[in-house]
Design a protein that fits this description.
Length: 230
């Protein structure tokens, strides 16, 4: 029996709607620039941009319904509503046709972003970590099993701040579809059960501040809420 110098962190896990067991989180992958209108609002040309990936530590995972502190070192803290894919079985070098076979289910997520730090990193051609990978930055709703809801290919994706609609699009507008993302990502990584993939956000991203309340939904998948402490 090993002894630890200090108590290791509890495993990170996500509630599964209607299921007793929880979904243990392995890795958190995120896709950047995956809706054309959002690529344009960020100042890029969607016709010429390859998809880009970044990762977040599992400890960034925060359940829907949480109230979190405003993060340090930013004055431009942004919401990004996203469809999240939960991987349930191993997959490596998958074809697009095989890709959905590794999906356990789907959730609604918020890729919370320190936009000022992300943009500064991008301009200096450095990694995005301090803009993307920080405490409470990967908010997630309960996961819904694909067995129950199927594999969504369309449906409204919406986010409001204090009841005012800010993001309103459709997951049918993903530049890279869910099976295409899984197939592409599986060329670079051996996907494992517990991996989550945040698939990218539509246009309408913007800042939130202390005291703000975020609500969002992906049609057929779920709803999400987050409050920023005053
Ligand atoms: Mn994002």
């Amino acid at each position: 029996m090993s002894r630890y110098l200090f108590e290791p962190a509890a495993p990170v896990s996500v509630e599964i709607a209607g299921v007793d067991a929880r979904f243990p989180v392995n890795r958190v992958f995120c896709v950047g620039r995956n809706y054309a209108a959002h690529v344009r609002e960020m100042g890029f040309d969607p016709e010429r941009e390859e998809p880009c990936y970044f990762t977040k530590a599992a400890l960034c995972i925060t359940p829907s319904g949480s109230e979190i502190p405003y993060p340090p070192a930013t004055s431009n803290y942004h919401h990004e509503i996203e469809l999240v894919v939960a991987i349930g079985t191993e997959g490596f070098e998958l074809s697009v046709d095989e890709a959905l076979s590794v999906v356990y289910g789907y959730a609604c997520g918020l890729d919370m972003t320190r936009r000022d730090l992300q943009v500064a990193s991008r301009q200096s051609k450095g990694p995005w970590d301090i803009g993307k990978d920080f405490e409470h930055s990967a908010v997630i709703s309960p996961i819904r099993a694909a067995e129950e809801i199927g594999h969504p290919v369309g449906g409204r994706i919406r986010l409001s701040v204090n009841g005012e609609l800010r993001q309103d699009s459709d997951i049918a507008k993903l530049i890279w579809s869910v099976p295409e993302i899984i197939a592409h990502l599986s060329r670079f990584y051996r996907l494992e059960p517990g991996d989550l993939i945040y698939t990218g956000t539509p246009d309408g991203v913007g800042p939130v501040g202390p005291g703000d309340s975020i609500t969002g939904s992906v049609e057929g998948v779920g709803e999400i809420a987050l409050a920023i402490r005053d």
